[in-house]
Design brief:
The chain folds into five domains: 218 residues, Sandwich (Immunoglobulin-like), CATH 2.60.40.1730; 97 residues, Neutral Protease, domain 2; 125 residues, Neutral Protease Domain 2 (Neutral Protease, domain 2), CATH 1.10.390.10; 86 residues, Immunoglobulin-like; 79 residues, Sandwich (Immunoglobulin-like), CATH 2.60.40. α2 crosses α4, α3 packs across α4 and α8 crosses α9. The chain contains ten helices and 37 strands. The strands form nine sheets. The chain has an eight-stranded mixed beta sheet, with no helix packed on it. Strands 1-20-21-19-18-17 form a six-stranded mixed beta sheet. It has 654 residues and is of the alpha+beta class.
Length: 654
C-alpha cells in the first residue's frame, strides 16, 4: 500500500511509498474446545490480541452484502463466511469491532444468541462439527466504525477540487473487522469473494473482481454485485463509493496473443476530471504489459485491473481495483506492482512485509528503467538508497513482537520496508550479474507461490534454487541485519600497478557486509575503466596492472549498491607486513585495527598522545584488534603497530 503524508510514503507525497505508501498457526495438535471453555484465555494484550479459536477453521468464501454511502461511514448488512473445520469445532470465532452491533448470528442455519465479545473477538459456542466438515456462518450487523488516521477501516471525505463526496475502505493491516466479520489471518486466503454494495442510485460502487450485475432495488437505491473467483487475503477486500463515471482502457500483454485485459476506472463524475487524469491513467496499460513480461502474466487477467479515485493520501492495492488518491506515474506503478507482490503472492507474516512493499517499490524502479530510461531509473534508486541510509540502523525484517494494532507505522516504515526493501533487490540483481537469471527468479517465485503466501526466506530459497548461489550471508546482513557499509579506500601506484586497500566499517550493529563492489578508475591520460572486486572481509587488498596511474576513483558508478565511501591517495608507496587500516565504530568508543597480512605473527600496538606520552600498549597476532578508547580524553593520538623489523603509523582523533 502507499500513502501520502504532507511531508513524507503507506505514502508520503515526497518519499513514502507503501502500498499504503513513502514492514504459522500450528493446529496439528489442537484438541476440540468444549462449550464450557468459552471463558478460557479470552484476555489479550498487544502481543496476543486475537482469539485462539480463529485457528480452528479455514475460510473458503466471503460474501459481504452491505449498504454503503458516499457521505457516511455507517455500515449496515451482513457477512457470510464459508469454511472448513480444522478440528472438532464447537466454538466459532470471528473478528468484528464492538462498534458494529450484531443483530443476528447464524451457524449452519441455526441462530445463536449466546456469544461473548472480547475486544474485537466474537466467540460463539456452537453445535459441534467434526474436523474436515464444511460450515456456513452468517452475521448481521450495523454500526459506525471509528475514523481518523490513515489506518481507519472506513473513511469518508469530500474532494474540494471536484466537489464530490466519497467513502472508501482500507483494511490493511488490522482494520477489516471495522466493517465486516472476518478472520484476519494472512495465511488463510479465501478461495473466492462476493461483495454486494447497495447505495444511492446517483452513486457507483467499486470493488474487486467483475461487476456481474447492477440491480435497482427500489427507493432510489442500486445494488452493485461484484464477484471474484481468485484467492484473496482478507485485507484486500474493499469498496469505494461516490458519484463516479467509468473510464475503461485495455492492456495487451504479448503472452495473450492479441487478447486484452480490462482496466476499469471509476473517476469522479465532474466536468474536467477525466480529462485531467486521462493521460496518466492511460500509462497503466504499458505497465501491465511490462510487468507481465518481466514477472508472469497479470495474475487476475480473467477479471480486470482498475482504480477507484478517492481522497486517500496515496494508494491501496485492493485486489484487481486499487483505491487511489491520484495518478502520478510512480504511484500507479507501485500499486500495480502489488498485484504480483502482495496480492497474488502475499507476505505470510507482517514481519515479512518486504514481500509486498519492497517488491512493489522495485516494480516502480523497473517501470522507470524500461519505460522512461536508465537516467530516470538511476534517479529513482539513488533516492531510495539515500533514504535507506538517512538513519544508521533498522532491519527490513520486523521482529514479531513489534507487530500489533497501534504499531502500524513500524510495519509500513517507508525507509525500511519500502526503500531499503527495494534497494536490496537491486543489490541482489547486481550480485547475480545476469539479468536473465534475475528475472527467472521473479517468474519462478510468482509461479511457485501464486495464489498463496510467502516469507522472505521463501524468496531467498527460490533465488538459491534458480541461481545455484548461496544467499544466506546476503539475507543475514541486508534483510535481517541493520545499517549499511562505510568504505575507506586508499590507493597508490608503483611500477605500473595500482594497489588498493578497501576497509569496510558499518553504520550499525551488523559487523560486516560481504558484497560485490564496482570501481571506475580514471587515469591521467583521460581514459577510464570499470573494475569489480569482492569485499570478502572488513579489510581487502587488491591490485590492478594498468601501466598508468589512477588519478581518481568513482565507487559504485552505476549505483547498484548502498554505501558511504571516501578514498585517498596513500603516502606510503610501499608495502610492509604490518600495514593496517583504522576503523572507528559508529556506535561505541571502539577503534579497530585491521591487519592485511597476519603471517608475520605477533605485533605490538602502542598509542601515544600528541606529546608522545604512551597511553595504551597491547599485542595481537590476529587480523583484527579492538581497542576501547573511552578512557581517552578528546584529542589527537598516534597509533603504531610494529614487529621485529617493521612498523606502521596512523593518527586518529578521539
Amino acid at each position: 500500500m502507499k500513502h501520502f503524508l504532507l511531508s513524507i510514503s503507506i505514502l508520503l507525497i515526497s518519499t513514502f511509498s507503501f502500498s499504503q505508501i513513502n514492514n504459522d498457526l500450528n493446529i496439528e495438535y489442537k484438541c476440540s474446545h468444549s462449550a464450557h471453555q468459552i471463558n478460557k484465555n479470552l484476555s489479550f494484550d498487544i502481543y496476543n490480541w486475537q482469539s485462539e479459536y480463529l485457528e480452528d477453521y479455514d475460510v473458503t468464501f466471503y460474501f459481504l452484502d452491505i449498504e454503503v454511502s458516499n457521505t457516511t461511514i455507517y455500515i449496515n448488512g451482513n457477512t457470510t463466511i464459508n469454511g472448513v473445520a480444522l478440528v472438532n469445532l464447537d466454538t466459532f470465532a470471528i473478528e468484528l469491532i464492538p462498534e458494529q452491533t450484531i443483530t443476528q448470528l447464524l451457524f449452519n442455519g441455526v441462530e445463536y444468541t449466546t456469544y461473548q465479545r472480547d475486544g474485537n473477538n466474537v466467540i460463539v459456542p456452537v453445535n459441534e462439527i467434526s474436523a474436515g466438515s464444511s460450515f456456513t456462518a452468517q452475521i448481521f450487523y450495523n454500526g459506525q466504525p471509528p475514523t481518523g488516521g490513515f489506518f481507519a477501516g472506513v473513511t469518508t471525505a469530500t474532494s474540494g477540487a471536484w466537489g464530490k463526496d466519497v467513502t472508501w475502505s482500507l483494511s490493511e493491516p488490522f482494520a477489516a473487522s471495522d466493517w465486516f466479520a472476518v478472520k484476519q489471518d494472512l495465511e488463510d486466503k479465501a478461495d473466492s469473494v462476493w461483495v454486494f454494495l447497495t447505495t444511492d442510485s446517483t452513486n457507483m460502487a467499486g470493488s474487486q473482481g467483475l461487476l456481474t450485475n447492477m440491480v435497482d432495488v427500489g427507493n432510489g437505491k442500486t445494488r452493485y454485485e461484484w464477484k471474484s473467483n481468485y484467492p484473496i487475503d482478507y485485507y484486500l477486500i474493499s469498496f469505494a463509493v461516490a458519484e463516479y463515471q467509468e473510464y475503461n482502457i485495455y492492456a495487451h500483454p504479448e503472452e495473450m496473443n492479441g487478447d486484452s485485459i480490462l482496466i476499469q476506472n471509476f473517476i469522479y463524475d465532474s466536468p474536467g476530471c477525466l480529462e485531467y487524469y486521462q493521460s496518466d491513467i492511460d500509462e497503466t496499460a504499458p505497465m501491465i504489459e511490462l510487468f507481465s513480461d518481466l514477472f508472469i502474466l497479470y495474475p487476475f487477467w480473467q477479471e480486470k485491473y482498475g482504480h477507484c479515485l478517492t481522497q486517500l493520501g496515496g494508494g491501496m492495492e485492493h485486489q484487481t481495483m486499487t483505491t487511489i488518491g491520484g495518478f502520478p506515474f510512480w504511484l500507479v506503478a507501485h500499486e500495480l506492482g502489488h498485484m504480483w507482490f502482495g496480492d497474488n503472492v502475499t507476505c505470510a507474516t507482517w514481519s515479512d512485509i518486504w514481500i509486498n512493499e519492497g517488491f512493489a517499490t522495485y516494480s516502480n524502479y523497473l517501470a522507470e528503467e524500461f519505460l522512461h530510461g536508465w537516467s530516470s531509473a538511476v534517479s529513482f534508486i539513488v533516492n531510495k538508497q539515500n533514504s535507506a541510509m538517512s538513519s544508521p540502523g533498522g532491519s527490513i525484517y520486523i521482529p514479531e513482537n513489534q507487530i500489533y494494532p497501534g504499531n502500524e507505522w513500524r510495519i509500513f516504515d517507508s525507509r525500511l520496508s519500502y526503500n531499503k526493501g527495494a534497494v536490496i533487490i537491486h543489490m541482489l540483481r547486481h550480485e547475480i550479474q545476469d539479468d536473465e537469471l534475475f528475472f527467472d527468479i521473479m517468474e519462478t517465485f510468482q509461479t511457485d507461490y501464486t495464489d498463496s503466501t510467502a516469507t522472505g526466506e521463501d524468496f531467498k530459497n527460490t533465488a538459491e534454487d534458480v541461481t545455484g548461489m548461496d544467499f544466506d550471508q546476503f539475507f543475514d546482513q541486508w534483510y535481517y541485519g541493520e545499517g549499511y557499509p562505510i568504505f575507506d579506500i586508499e590507493y597508490y601506484y608503483l611500477n605500473g600497478t595500482n594497489y588498493f586497500t578497501s576497509l569496510q566499517t558499518t553504520s550499525s550493529s551488523t559487523p560486516f557486509f560481504e558484497m560485490l563492489m564496482d570501481f571506475r578508475l580514471y587515469f591521467e591520460d583521460g581514459s577510464d575503466t570499470l573494475i569489480s572486486f569482492y569485499q570478502s572481509d572488513n579489510l581487502v587488498e587488491f591490485s590492478v596492472e594498468t601501466g598508468k596511474e589512477v588519478m581518481n576513483i568513482n565507487v559504485d558508478p552505476n549505483n547498484w549498491t548502498m554505501e558511504h565511501s571516501e578514498f585517498s591517495v596513500s603516502v606510503e608507496k610501499t608495502q610492509t607486513p604490518v600495514t593496517f587500516k583504522l576503523g572507528q565504530n559508529q556506535l561505541t568508543d571502539v577503534i579497530t585495527l585491521y591487519f592485511s597480512n597476519t603471517k608475520y605473527g605477533n605485533k605490538e600496538v602502542v598509542i601515544t598522545d600528541i606529546s608522545g606520552k604512551i597511553v595504551y600498549t597491547g599485542q595481537t597476532s590476529n587480523s583484527k584488534l579492538n581497542i576501547n578508547t573511552s578512557f581517552l580524553k578528546h584529542g589527537i593520538y598516534v597509533i603504531r603497530a610494529s614487529d621485529d623489523g617493521h612498523s606502521f603509523v596512523k593518527r586518529f582523533i578521539n
